[in-house]
Design a protein that fits this description.
Helices cover 39% and strands 15% of the residues. By secondary structure, it is of the alpha/beta class. It folds into two domains: 214 residues, NAD(P)-binding Rossmann-like Domain (Rossmann fold), CATH 3.40.50; 192 residues, Rossmann fold, CATH 3.40.50.720. Helix 11 packs across helix 12.
Length: 437
């Protein structure tokens, strides 16, 4: 048998060893799914604290079940290390590392390039390498492939290379790694065949596409679609504010149409690892081709301005009550970038805190999922949510609508509430205290 046949055979009989590079929000759930069907999984995580926790069977990702992780570790199906020395033992190498932006909103592929160089130094014949990190079309072939072939091995002959973008939605109880459709694109037909075989072992529906670039573009389009539509309803919010209309009422009415429309809702800004970042990867790549993506640029501009709008409206609420922002005590409810998750990456709430602090306001926050944070030069600890802390604040700003918070109780014990998420939708008592976004 040739290298491809040997690898496919090992994948199908579960004797292939799976390496997962980066054990974060994408990598750890993926590693657990592979371990659950019998693969031995070797994780590479350069954060020593996380590595230690995994090897002790301790979980740190909300979407992973504690008992499943612990069982895999106890059975020897999942281990983690901080270096790449075990790469030669891996048959499949899945890369799940961050792809952030620079301050100038250009792609930062340092993690991808560094990991690829480390893999290349250990690369052997008969391995499959797949990139799951979201990136611009061309990364797999134009950035990773030359680095890997510097090893002297040739793709499609000695090793196989593919892109299969992650589709993780933290906190989503309905769609998990297993039942979310998986797009796969190879750098050639041999790579595609091996990658599709691998992903079909644990994922219910695999969607092959013609090439790695198509797979890369499909993912950034998915997130750009969301960014543009969120920007549309955010801009509508700014207009409704000028027209003294309730944007939530307008949207609820519009979304009763049974065709030709899809619900999107406004908020204090966009956060997380996808919406604020990924569209700019596509925007950057388009400029390289002398093509301007007007919708993407405008959407990003609108969404980035929402924290400023929240600050301005909060100041207006205070001014109407005769309270200067420099003397105001403000309690922020929710730091996570979306409800019911323990993730504050790119959270608009942190930008709102920064902006209000610049106005001289005394800011505290409460979040049952984020006990503390240290982002963008701001370090804070969550304060207990009590009747006393609510009563002491001149303004409560609901920045994240966590399900565990009793918003009627919040309104009952507060002087003023600025609700940026419509978390108080069903509340009737004390509505005169509430201002919506």
């Amino acid at each position: 048998m040739n290298h491809k046949e040997i690898l496919i055979n090992k994948i199908c009989n579960k004797t292939a060893i799976v390496g997962v590079i980066g054990l974060g929000y994408v990598g750890l759930p993926f590693a657990v799914e592979k371990g659950k069907v019998g693969y031995k999984v070797l994780g590479v995580e350069q954060n020593p604290k996380r590595t230690q926790m995994i090897n002790q069977g301790k979980n740190y990702i909300l979407d992973v079940k504690d008992d499943e992780l612990q069982k895999l570790v106890e059975e020897g199906l999942l281990t983690a290390q901080t270096d790449f020395s075990s790469v030669p033992d891996m048959d499949v190498i899945v890369i799940c590392v961050p792809t952030p932006l620079t301050k100038n909103l250009t792609p930062d592929l340092n993690y991808v390039e560094s990991v690829t160089r480390s893999i290349a130094s250990y690369l052997r014949r008969g391995q499959l390498v797949t990139l799951e990190s979201t990136t611009y079309p061309g990364t797999t072939e134009e950035v990773m492939l030359p680095i890997l072939e510097d090893s002297g091995l040739k793709v499609e002959k000695d090793f196989y290379l593919a892109h299969s973008p992650e589709r993780v939605d933290p906190g989503n109880k309905r769609y998990t790694t297993k039942n979310t459709n998986k797009v796969v694109g190879g750098v050639g037909p041999e790579s595609l065949a091996v990658a599709v075989t691998f992903y079909r072992q644990t994922i219910e529906n695999v969607v092959p596409v013609s090439c790695a670039k198509a797979a890369e573009l499909s993912k950034v389009f998915e997130n750009t679609f969301r960014a543009v539509n969120i920007a549309l309803v955010n801009e509508l919010t700014l207009l409704c504010d000028r027209m003294c209309l309730d944007v939530w009422e307008v949207l609820d009415a519009a979304f009763t149409k049974p065709f030709g429309i899809m619900p999107f809702y406004p908020g204090p800004g966009v956060g997380g690892h996808c919406i604020p970042l990924d569209p700019h990867y596509l925007e950057w790549k388009a400029k390289e081709l002398n093509f301007n993506t007007h919708f993407i640029a405008l959407a990003g501009e609108i969404n980035r301005k929402m924290p400023e709008f929240v600050r301005d409206k909060a100041i207006r609420i205070l001014n109407h009550s005769g309270i200067a922002s420099s003397k105001a005590r403000i309690l922020i409810l929710g730091i996570a970038y979306k409800k019911d998750i323990e993730d504050e990456r790119e959270s608009p709430a942190i930008e709102i805190i920064k902006l209000l602090k610049q106005e001289g306001a005394d800011i505290t926050y409460h979040d049952p999922f984020i006990p503390s944070f240290n982002e963008h030069g701001i370090q804070m600890d969550s304060t207990p949510l009590t009747e006393e802390t609510l009563a002491a604040a001149d303004l409560i700003i609901i920045a994240t609508d966590h399900s565990s918070i009793d918003y009627q109780w919040v309104v009952d014990n507060s002087r003023r509430v600025f609700d940026t998420r419509n978390a108080t939708r069903g509340i009737t008592r004390g509505r005169e205290k509430i201002t919506l976004l």
